[in-house]
Amino acid sequence: MPRVIVAEDDVQLMRALQINLQVREYTVVQATDGESALWLASTFKPDVIVLDLGLPDMSGVEVIKVIRSWSRVPILVLSARHMSEDKVRALDAGADDYVTKPFSMDELLARLRAATRRRQDSAGAEAPAAVTTDEFTIDLVAKKVQREGRTVRLTPTEWHLLEMLVARPGRLVSQRQLLREVWGPAFEENTNYLRVYMAQLRRKLEADPARPRYLITEPGMGYRFEP
Questions:
Q1: Rounded distance, CA 126 to CA 30, Å?
Q2: Where are the beta strands (DSSP E) in the chain?
Q3: What is the helix (H) or strand (E) element at residue 178, kind and residue range?
Q4: Using 50, 70 and 90 to split pLDDT, how confident is the model at 126?
Q5: What tens digit of pLDDT does each residue of 159-201 get?
Q6: Are 46 and 73 in contact (CB under 8 A)?
């Protein structure tokens, strides 16, 4: 049975969603605010999240950003906001789909089925065991890096940082995402940590650390790995 988190503070809508989903053999848990949604996302291990943008304690976009720092679970946004800017912000933050209120229950259920299918297809695909560039090879299973035939010794922090970037090839990973995942939520503003550790990684991996080819800085935003 697919597992669904419904994060919605409208009690009547929540009840309607719960009834319709349970009838179709979804396992449903409810969250009425962002903090509860984040806690459930980390403990319930859902197959899909249905998320209202207008939660009482925090922005739905912020909820998406936090979840995307550690999970690729499909997120389907429900919102009364019809402006394209709201949709763009939600999708850029990592939402997979966007449904505006009021909506057809049949349409919502069809989008949920599509999201769970993509989730199952993704789970069935093999993750790459290694990433190879002209300069180095990263063995993601053995957690080792080889360069010019020799093992590159990385600290646990360096490895965690590199792994986060390599897992999202070509995609910007924000400074906050990296700091939260590698050092913890209390360090989200300590961008100097990133500068120091990225410099160390470049010295170990890049042919020209001053002009990196693979570990790219996006000033003021974050970093990306270019394979």
A1: 32
A2: 3-7, 27-31, 48-52, 75-79, 97-100, 130-132, 137-139, 144-147, 150-152, 173-174, 215-218, 222-225
A3: helix 175-182
A4: very low
A5: 989 988 988 888 888 888 888 878 877 788 889 999 999 999 9
A6: yes
